[in-house]
Fold this protein.
Amino acid sequence: MLAIESSCDDTGAAILIDGKVKSNVLVRQVDHAKYGGVIPELASRSHIKHIVPVVDTAIARAGITKDAITAVAFTQCPGLIGSLMVGACFAKAFALSRNLPLIAVNHLRAHVLAHFIDAQPPFPFLCLTASGGHTQLIVCHSHHDMQLLGQTIDDAAGEAFDKIAKMTGLPYPGGPLVDKYAKNGNPHAFKFATSEMKDYDFSFSGIKTSVLYFLQKQQKTNPQFIEQNLADICASAQHAIVQMLMQKLLKAAKQLGITHLGIAGGVSANSYWRNALIEAGNQRGLTVYIPPFEYCTDNAAMIGITAYYQALNQDWAGLDTVPMAKSTGL
Ligand code: KG4
Ligand code: ZN
């Protein structure tokens, strides 16, 4: 199976044989740091430039030829529409020219099922996906049946990391840099406001405003405040975000009696969150699942594993399947 991921700015292609990943290639070429964020038109153009070489590389690294491919999967939603369109058109053209079946994959489902690439968590499996665009707490009852418990009502967790990073002058995407600087900081140096949402929903706009006002106030008396305290600011903001994520995840595990839980999406690459989850698992007797780094952020292997389970379920897509910026469900 050939799987394509093109929902945002990374062009990915993977080859899977019987649900096993044989190659997973990813290219990120746009210098978004120059613009402080992803420019959709530049992302689309980058996909057009890279999709053919990325697919060729995935096929070569898997040690197969094009003729061996028996199905084609692509990300249908959610994402930047121009970017999705490039992957969808490529996948359809490939499938049509070779008379192969197509599989349309929901990117958010794929972040969750990334856990099933190298492991087999038993059901029910509780997963918190935190990426640049989404924060979703999900219970998987099977590979096909996912229930959304709650989500963010405003910014996504990754967006909060990126915006706070920007306030401190760090380039986009700031999440990984906050993680890096926080390693030398004190997570309890500053206390930032965290939001208490009802049930299993999240809100990250409060912490963002709290950090902003705090920095503005400190800079009035000390213009060098950020430079002098960067590690502590990063560590304290990271602590506040991770605390909000962990609190809802552990609350759901306790209330629903689920003992197998995982984290997914770009923010699950965060070292402080990964450690916090391992610690909570040890303390509470929970089995925790943390994806390898290459399966945390966007990648085509997770599209492939999702498509593999959809294919087992005979869940094929027609050539008239259109990409969608928003997903209608999970
Ligand atoms: O899942 P992903 O690659 O793309 C989306 O589907 O959005 O997630 C990207 C997000 C960005 O906001 C990025 O800053 C964040 O994940 N991220 C991190 C780390 N690595 C990536 N946030 C905190 N710590 C990290 N180590
Ligand atoms: Zn993603």
